[in-house]
Amino acid sequence: MLVRALIALFVFVVAASPAAADPRADALAGMDAELDAARAAFDIPTLAAVVVADGRVVMARAYGRRGLEDATPVGADTRFAIGSCTKAFTALGVAMIAEHGWLRLDGLVTGHDPALTLPQPGALSRLRVFDLLTQRSGLARHDFLWHALPSMSRERFAAIQGSLPMQRAPGTGYGYTNSAYILAGRLIELKTGMSWEAFTAARIFQPLGMTRANFSSDGLLADANTAVATKRREGVNRTVPFRDGRLLGPAGSINASANDMGRWLLLLTGGGAIENQRLVSPETLSILFAPAGAEDGEGYGLGWRVDEWRGLRRISHSGAVDGFRARVIVFPDQGVGIAVMANLGPTPMGDFASRVLAERILGLPRQTDLVGLAAGRRQAESAALGQTAALPRGRVARLGERDPAFGPRLRPEA
């Protein structure tokens, strides 16, 4: 009887004890209200955010409505176009086939792509796979091709490079371009016999459990749970058509949800493995995260920008495609990853929100004032239109008043 009584007492005490503290979740307390208020202040229909730390998803949320004419609530499975954040997936794919010995990162591109031509004498004998991935290819930004001719094959795209001017000789300097990543995705196709889309879905999305991730405008239209593309011009938001990104593909055509991006961040903060399943070695991931150069004060690795922020090594990339913006940040030394997506272009919210989330989850002193930034953005927009900016009101005003961590806020002059 005594033993039974002691067992019953133990069970009662355990059941009655408060849940174990979660410092990471506590660090993000109040973020739902703050992000939703900032979303409204920045005139964004839909905002999504995900944070991973300590090998788990701490937060995955979406706020607002699908679009200007669609008041359907959104969630962590709502799809967004992530634009150039796609490049990191392509770089990982190339690194994966390099690990299999199917190509070398320091090998010549022409050794794998017989269709490729370049206009500069000797350029083909200099262009390496590494140059494509680190934005040192020398190719220029000829985005009119994928805008105007989305159905062009990537083989044809490679063949016509010889008739297009280059920025510089391969390997001699940094120059950001989507063309390099379209050609990098073509290498995956040539070495695997699969389309870049099929390879990425089978070798990255499926192992990671990115069940909502897909590609281009057809993917956004796959079902109704998709944020609607929205553009802002002269102070007015407008719904715009989804951009056909078939040719762009490896450079910027992935669509994903907050839950999908959480799985992606777990891989990146987990040394190339997730739930005991390894996609690449930690050594290969370190290569992806290493800058090839630091021209213009900025380093670029393989599909990632590399810099230091608040004294911490930061790996990041932004994405922009018609009516959408995205921002992905990894702090590899702290095991923290953040992604923010919005269905409005242009908007700086991805950068601003990711900074706030980083300050919170990393325990850094608060320096990012979303209320002030929103007021400043509206003030600048109104000034450009010759109008007077409205004072903050409602949830936005209350948010700024109740949070002592905020610094001085920008206020329109009377």
Question: How would you characterize the overall build of this protein?
Answer:
Helix content is 36%, strand content 16%. It has helices at residues 2-16, 23-27, 31-41, 87-99, 129-133, 144-148, 154-159, 178-192, 196-208, 216-220, 258-269, 282-288, 349-361, 370-384, 394-402; strands spanning 46-53, 56-64, 80-81, 214-215, 230-233, 236-239, 254-256, 273-274, 277-278, 299-300, 305-309, 312-321, 324-331, 336-342. The longest helix is centred in the N-terminal third of the chain and has 15 residues, at 2-16. The protein is globular. Mean pLDDT is 89; it is low at 5-18 and 391-414.
Short description:
This protein is of the alpha+beta class and 414 residues long. It has 15 helices and 14 strands.
Distance between the termini: 78 Å
Low-confidence stretches: 5-18, 391-414
Largest sheet: 7 strands, antiparallel
Radius of gyration: 23 Å
Principal-axis shape equals globular
Strand order, biggest sheet?
2-1-14-13-12-11-10
SS elements, strand count: 14
Helix and strand sequence:
HHHEEEHHHHHHEHEEEHEEHEEEEEHHH
Strand portion = 15-25%
Structural class comes to: alpha+beta
Give me the number of helical elements. 15
Percent helix, as a range, is 25-40%
User: Kindly state the mean pLDDT as a whole number?
Assistant: 89
